[in-house]
Specification:
Elements: E1 14-19, H1 24-36, E2 44-53, E3 56-58, E4 68-70, E5 74-82, H2 88-94, E6 111-117, E7 127-142, E8 150-157, E9 159-164
Antiparallel strand pairs: 1-6, 2-5, 3-4, 5-8, 6-7, 7-8, 7-9
Length: 168
């Protein structure tokens, strides 16, 4: 059933979990998640999901405004900040290469990342964004002098879907 989207959310309303599809890349990510209990992914302080559409504008001679816009390639990127360092996120990027240098090529782990929101004042109106086919592209480790130790990962993904529904 459709409804008006009137619920507002706060970071405290969110949870992050990972899921896996069958195949070598999904199996590699599931192995890391099972070892390090990554569902839900705890101690996160920020998640950014960015979707860009490379829109192309067509300009005619003598016209300053575009006369046509065409959608282009869609890219899904993002980042996760986590205040807990145990190597799990680095392993989600490197797979088996996190423990030893492989002699040749190795599979890169791939997973689906789900960000779910549920306002305690309106629990029957959850919302979620699921990023599909995520592969981590960068891992950063920050050790400040007098603040929390943080790790940050950047990712790319194949596609993204969203779901907002009123429970019946």
């Amino acid at each position: 059933a459709s409804h008006m989207a009137t619920t507002v959310y706060h970071g405290a309303d969110g949870t992050i979990s990972v899921a896996f599809e069958n195949g070598p890349a999904g199996d590699a990510a599931k192995k890391v998640s099972d070892t390090f209990s990554l569902t839900p992914v705890g101690r996160c302080t920020g998640v950014t999901i960015k979707v860009t559409n490379d829109v192309k504008a067509f300009h005619e001679l003598g016209q300053r405004f575009a006369t046509d816009l065409r959608p282009g390639n869609i890219n899904v990127t993002g980042s996760i900040q986590r205040a807990y360092v145990n190597g799990a996120l680095l392993r989600l990027m490197l797979g088996d290469a996190a423990d030893a240098r492989p002699a040749g090529a190795f599979v890169g782990p791939s997973f689906n990342l789900s960000v779910e929101l549920k306002n305690p004042a309106d629990p029957d109106n959850p919302a979620s964004v699921t990023v599909m086919g995520v592969q981590l592209s960068a891992w950063n480790y920050s050790l400040p002098e007098d603040d929390f130790v943080m790790e940050n990962v950047d990712f790319r993904a194949l596609w993204v879907k969203t779901d907002e529904k009123k429970a019946s």
